[in-house]
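Contributing: when you submit paired examples, paste them exactly as shown. First protein:
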Amino acid sequence: MIRAPLSTTSVLDETSDVVAIAAAPWAAVLVLTSLPWRFLQILFIEQILELGGNASHYGRALNSTANAATIAFVISLLGRAIYVRAINLAAASGRRPGTEALRIPLATLASYLFTGALAAALFYIVWFTLIGIPLTIMIGGLSAGTMPLNDRAGIVAPLKRIARFAREAKLLTALLLVFGVALIVAAINLAAAFQIGLWLAHGFGGFDVSRWQILLDGGTRRFTLLLIAGSILAVEPFWIAANVILVRKAGAEESGEELRLWFRELAGR
């Protein structure tokens, strides 16, 4: 397969191909390691909103939830790092990666833990602004996409790599819009799946689902938060893979590697 030039459609096409190769079992690893973090996020937000102005009087309870969420966040970063390596290996070889996806160089992992944590911290600092949310999401995606390039531990070099590929602003914006639509579609499908499940349980199982109907009502805050978290979990494998592919293709174009790959593929044929 000859790789198409760098564009939104080429990145999305190659992303779907690579995810199809590496999804089993590495997408499951990503989702399972992210689940605790997402649900603890919901719990913490729910506690803050529920307590309101009295939150300062429940510091111990909030602190315990925050500590558990921090541990879960680090675990989620480890899962993302494994998935990024699996996607990168699949994109390079065209084959499903085995246990080599688990063998992440320590310097690479340390650099990603730093950039991933930094992107998350920036998100929470600027979430209340309109421009800050998409910018920090892009930074988080590029921190994953550039992870395989960080072969030496450091603070400045990983940030420089993120800044270098951030120059593809138009492509990043287009991808963000595409995945924004994908989030909405995923949320609609999840909401419909919940309602169909309730209908089946009530109509054919004879169960009393009145309590679940209240909990899963689209107007409740908890259900809305769960829907957002579930949509993110559904789209995240493709979003991370798209950033890995973008970095690979943009780096190949800058270095002339794409032309060398094309000649090697022709020679192989």
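Second protein:
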Amino acid sequence: MASFADKVVIVTGCSSGIGLATTHLFLERKAKVFGIDVSPFTANVSGAPFEFHQADLTTAGATETAVAACIAKYGPRIDVLVNCAGISDGWSSADTLKDSEWERVMLINLTVPVRLMTAVLPAMKEQKAGAIVNVCSKAGVSGAAAGIAYTASKHGLVGRYAISWIAIKDGHWN
């Protein structure tokens, strides 16, 4: 696997699960990792180029603040954004779904990743390089009778990823 020496990587959901595994993988590959999570970070990464930023990215201005903190720590370069943070819904069907459940899942699984993409794209466009990875699931490319909010959020993230990839690949927003 390739080295990421001196590359700056932002990983959301870094405190557990896929986000934590992703954080460890990039650190093993010598990346400078800026981890973001609403939960405390308790893993041992001593000696690694790792900065933890605890934040609730659903609050106004939090994504911009997090990206600014990454730039303050590692400089203006952002090479990779990995949107790992996400939540499941209560596996509600359309006839049992509550508005509050829909809004929370969409905010965390779709709105926050889009806000982060918007926040990192200026740096990536300036350096004419970068990669955005949105962690989805099979739900992003299939349908289900239950889990309507989760499925819709992952479908949205899959679609948004294709648009973002074009923007980064060409060095400008199409």
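If you have annotations for the second protein, write them as plain sentences, like these:
The first strand starts at residue 8 and ends at 12.
The chain has four helices and five strands.
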